[in-house]
From TrEMBL:
Pfam families: HTH_IclR, IclR_C. InterPro entries: GAF-like_dom_sf (IPR029016), HTH_MetabolicPath_Reg (IPR050707), Tscrpt_reg_IclR_C (IPR014757), Tscrpt_reg_IclR_N (IPR005471), WH-like_DNA-bd_sf (IPR036388), WH_DNA-bd_sf (IPR036390). It comes from Gordonia aichiensis NBRC 108223. GO terms for biological process: negative regulation of DNA-templated transcription. SMART domains: HTH_ICLR. Residues 9-71 form the HTH iclR-type domain. It comes from the Bacteria. This is Putative IclR family transcriptional regulator. Residues 65-245 form the IclR-ED domain. GO terms for molecular function: DNA binding; DNA-binding transcription factor activity. Keywords: DNA-binding, Transcription, Transcription regulation.
C-alpha cells in the first residue's frame, strides 16, 4: 500500500457503483438489476440500498419495487453541471422579460427533478426547494411529469401538501396530466407558493424531447393576465430551445 494513502472502503465503492448503475439504467432500477450487474449478494445489495435511501441519495419508486436518483444527489450534480445560457438565448430572454410585468424564469429538467437555469433577477423565485423536490406542486413540475410515460414512478406517495392548495389526490393529478398533454401548458395556482400562480410551457430540444420550461409567475389575482401570455411564452421557448439544447 502506498505511504500516506488509506485503503479504499469496499462499502463506499459499492455504494458509488450502485448509484452509477441506477443513473445508467434509469428510474425503476430494481435491487435484482443492481445485484446482477455488480455481481453482489442480495443481502449486501439491500443493505447498501437502504442506506442510500435513508441518506436521500436514492429514492424508492411509487410502487416500492425500484429506485431512482434522489434529491440529495441531484443537487450535487446540479451544483457542478448547470447548463450555460448562451449569449443569444440570454438576449432573447432579457428582451422578453422587458416586455412583460411578471417573473420569467428558465428551468431545465433532470430525469426526475426540476432545476433553475436562469431565475428572473428582478423577481425572486420563491419556493425553489419545493419546486425541485415536489413535482406535483408546480406548473413546471407537472409539465415534467406529463412528459414522462411512467410519471407515477417518480412521485413519492402520499403526495405532500406544500400549501393548502397543493393537489395531493393522485386521481386529480392524473386528470391534470392528461390535460397538460393535450394543451402543452401547465398552471399552478397557490399550489407551490401561497397566493402566487405560475404558467409553464415546454422547451424542446432539436430532437423534439422536452428538456425544460419557460415559467411565468405572479400573484394569483393576475392569473388570467399570466395565462394570456401563453402564446408569447411558447414563442420564447421555441426560440431559445435550439440555442440551449
Amino acid at each position: 500500500m502506498a505511504i500516506g494513502r488509506a485503503p479504499k472502503s469496499d462499502s463506499v465503492v459499492r455504494a458509488l457503483q450502485i448509484i452509477e448503475t441506477v443513473a445508467d439504467l434509469g428510474i425503476g432500477t430494481t435491487a435484482r438489476d443492481i445485484a446482477e450487474r455488480l455481481d453482489l449478494p442480495s443481502a449486501s445489495t439491500y443493505r447498501l440500498l437502504n442506506s442510500l435511501v435513508a441518506d436521500e441519495f436514492l429514492v424508492r419508486t411509487a410502487d416500492l419495487r425500484g429506485f431512482a436518483i434522489g434529491a440529495r444527489l441531484a443537487s450535487f450534480v446540479d451544483g457542478v453541471a448547470t447548463p450555460p445560457v448562451p449569449a443569444r438565448a440570454a438576449e432573447r430572454l432579457d428582451d422578453f422579460r422587458g416586455s412583460v410585468r411578471f417573473a420569467v424564469h428558465l428551468l431545465y429538467f433532470r430525469p426526475a427533478s426540476v432545476r433553475v437555469l436562469d431565475a428572473d433577477p428582478d423577481h425572486p423565485l420563491d419556493g425553489v426547494g419545493e419546486l425541485m423536490r415536489y413535482l406535483h406542486a408546480s406548473a413546471a413540475g407537472k409539465l415534467l411529469l406529463a412528459s414522462l410515460s411512467q410519471w407515477r414512478d417518480v412521485l413519492e406517495l402520499p403526495l405532500v401538501p406544500v400549501t393548502p392548495a397543493t393537489i395531493i389526490d393522485p386521481a386529480r393529478l392524473e386528470e391534470q396530466i392528461v390535460e397538460i398533454r393535450r394543451t402543452d401548458v401547465a398552471v399552478d395556482d397557490g399550489e407551490l407558493v401561497v397566493h402566487h400562480a405560475h404558467l409553464a410551457v415546454p422547451i424542446y430540444d432539436v430532437n423534439g424531447a422536452v428538456r425544460g420550461a419557460v415559467m411565468i409567475g405572479g400573484v394569483s389575482s393576475r392569473l388570467e393576465a399570466i395565462c394570456s401570455l401563453t402564446d408569447a411564452a411558447r414563442g420564447l421557448a421555441n426560440t431559445v430551445g435550439p440555442l440551449l439544447f
